Amino acid sequence: MEHSRIGRLLAQLLVLATAALCACAPAKRVVSSGAEPGSLPKYESRLGHSRPVVAIVANNQGAELSDLLVPFGILSRDEGLDVKVVTTGDDALSTFTDMGQPGPRIQGQSTLHGFDEQVPEGADYVVVPAQASSQALIDWLKSQVGKGATTVSICNGGLIVAQTGLFAGRFATAHWSTESARIKSYPSVRWVRDRRYLADGSWISTSGVSAAVPVSIALIEAIHGRAASTRIARDLGVDDWSPVHDTSAFEPHLSGTAWPLAKVAYTNRWWHTQDLIVIAVAGGIDEVSLALTVDAYSSTGRSRAFVTTADGRPVVTRHGLTLWPDSPPQRIAGRPVVPPTERTATALDGALDGIMQRYGQATADGVALVFEFPWKRSR
Asked: From 3.40.50.150, 3.90.226.10, 3.40.50.880, 3.40.50.300, which CATH number describes the 53-236 domain?
């Protein structure tokens, strides 16, 4: 009883401290980029490509799973695009989830050097997930920009692009949690709030993890028009891909968000043994569905998701990536979770519902807040 009372007191103090720090932190709040809301630059052919080339670049040392696979899975649905995962080295790519848990390993489709040999004129678009930085990665990004590529940073991939120095003087955004650090480290960037995504010329950036969905659909619209984006959005189960966003709704506030965030970031880890959740996959698994499901269950502070296959062998995903399954310990929490095969962008809603049933409303809310996802949860 005494332990429980002390635990509740510590948790309450943590909530108060988190909210106070957030309220006191100096924030340079730019609320408009001056661009038309919802608009991305229309694609203009310039390189003689039969299909626009999209390079999703990732450091083999680690890239955020949803930042990587969600754009890949959505953009690959447009057969008029040539989409490649380009890695810094030959080995399988390590991934991590939004709260830093290990994710499955994935084999890229080209290396930086191989891509430069295959596409010497450069990509039309370079998508930059949150990931480990390296000089080779930064130099390659600079080279692609010099060849005229449009960059699309996903979530805290904006910090990678900022390291190139090429964001200076431009409007950009990233995850709310890095706002103060971004302003301090990259003061020449005009950091924007209240946009899920925005464009400043050939520089596109997004807010939190879940913004990878709307920006990918908006990019298809910018390249191939409204009919194409509407068709793909309908198949994914997405009704709205506008940039409308309220950053403050996801930050720690005593009015309601501080406690859910404290649970997934701290107290769940302090007071609970970690569950091991099996994500069962087979060949042809949809990349969007897989990433959102794994990422959500590994962001609760209560559980870690392991990707498994029936025979323990690698599988090829829907659009051609080789994925290595994990080897989870024997202690498994309940039946395997199977990502949806239809309307796959709704996988996050489904995962949050499952998390709420397992761990309660506050933990599910915390995961949605971390993802900057406007979850239509029931009360």
From this structure: 3.40.50.880
